[in-house]
Design goal:
By secondary structure, the protein is of the alpha+beta class. It is about 35% helix and about 25% strand. The strands form 3 sheets. Strands 3, 4, 5, 6, 7 and 8 form a 6-stranded mixed beta sheet that branches. Helix 1 packs across helix 2, helix 3 packs antiparallel against helix 4 and helix 3 runs parallel beside helix 5.
């Protein structure tokens, strides 16, 4: 009888241990999906649920990293503590936000973590409205500017060409799916860039005898973009390893061949739905990384211009801005309603050095005049 009881206990213990192993195996397989879910939930502004997803990922992978293996040959950026800190910031829990951001910086320093920690140290709060000031120049403590409404956009948006992506390990898995068409559609859909038509792109590639292989280095990509007359080119690769699929993309400046920004997206399977979601995520990350923001000129020395936009506004080296001056109001001759203001586009500048609250830029395209202090700027 005692033997039977002991045997039952042994069987029960084995079942419990196997159950824990299965749960652990499932967590190990899902951690990067929890992280991705957290990022997607953040984009919707659901900060509490995003925190829950990041906490699930941290239970398995607790350290922030610029490059971590997700599955097979797929590597991703992994900053759950940083992103969780940003979520706490938006929820108003500044103490917890500070803890998570500090931990992230200790594990893997990043500009994004430094920027938000700096905002907290300056006493900023996500819900605080901008304070009125008699000084027409925004102060360094002014909360980051949001994307301007369409009515205030000045000049053309940043023009880009999406080049063919290199395929690695895909074979015929894409079938009849035209990856380039999907990429172009994805970047057009976010309404952030002026995207060159595919027909014009193919004409240039044919003229330069480059074909549509997608195997193009940064220098050649910049040369192609310059020939088309765009500000930047998007190129990269799509890779499959096992069931995992990743798209890596980078935006290259056509003048300098420097990478302005690089993003990736991934999925656990290659299907039309998964591919569309990956491209949608990828394009959205480019839009988030290159925000449309307004600012002011705060200093001019020859061809050098200083603007009051910096890291905290999402400004990066290589970004371009329109500099303009507002003139007399446009008044309706019958109703007397002020319809807007006359706009004088002075020049285009490119960011060369970025600091927390300001950035240095160089005039690249003179237009109607010379910029002066208190003229306005908007990212291109």
């Amino acid at each position: 009888m005692r033997f039977l009881k002991n045997f039952r206990r042994l069987i029960f213990g084995v079942v419990v241990l196997l159950g824990l192993d299965f749960q652990m195996a499932d967590a190990l397989a899902q951690w990067h999906l929890f992280y991705r879910t957290g990022l997607q939930t953040m984009e919707r502004g659901d900060w509490s649920r995003a925190i829950e997803s990041f906490q699930q990922a941290i239970r398995v992978k607790a350290r922030d990293s610029k490059k971590i293996r997700a599955t097979g040959v797929m590597f991703i950026e992994y900053f759950p503590h940083r992103e969780m800190g940003i979520c706490y910031f938006h929820l108003g829990n500044l103490e917890r936000a500070k803890q998570e951001l500090t931990l992230s910086l200790a594990q893997e320093p990043s500009d994004r973590a430094r920027n938000f920690l700096g905002r907290i140290n300056r006493g900023e709060r996500a819900a605080d409205p901008p304070e009125a000031s008699p000084n027409p120049l925004p102060l360094a403590t002014t909360p980051p500017r949001t994307e301007p409404p369409a009515s205030t956009l000045i000049g053309e948006r940043l023009s880009i060409a999406v080049l063919p992506f290199e395929s690695k390990g895909i074979g015929g898995a894409l079938g009849q799916i035209d990856l380039l068409d999907k990429l172009v559609t994805g970047f057009v859909g976010i309404n952030r860039f002026k995207v060159i038509e595919r027909a014009q792109l193919e004409k240039i590639l044919e003229e330069q005898k480059l074909g549509m292989s997608g195997i193009i280095d940064a220098s050649t990509a910049a040369q192609i973009g310059k020939g088309i007359g765009v500000d930047g080119v998007v190129c990269g690769s799509i890779t499959q390893g096992g069931n995992a699929v990743t798209i890596d993309a980078r935006l290259i400046d056509t003048e300098t061949a420097a990478i302005i920004t690089a993003k990736d997206a991934y999925s656990n399977g290659l299907s039309l739905q998964n591919l569309s979601q990956m491209i949608s995520d990828l394009a959205a990350r480019f839009k988030t990384d290159l925000p449309l923001v307004n600012g002011y000129v705060i200093s001019v020395q020859g061809e050098k211009v200083t603007v009051d936009l910096g890291h905290k506004n999402g400004i990066k080296k290589g970004m371009k801005c329109h500099v303009y001056r507002e003139g007399a109001p446009i008044v309706h001759p019958v109703t007397g309603e002020v319809l807007g203001k006359n706009i004088d586009e002075l020049c285009e500048v490119q960011i060369t050095d970025v600091f927390d609250a300001y950035a240095l830029a160089t005039i690249t395209k003179p237009k109607s005049g010379t910029p002066a202090v208190r003229d306005k700027v908007i990212t291109k």
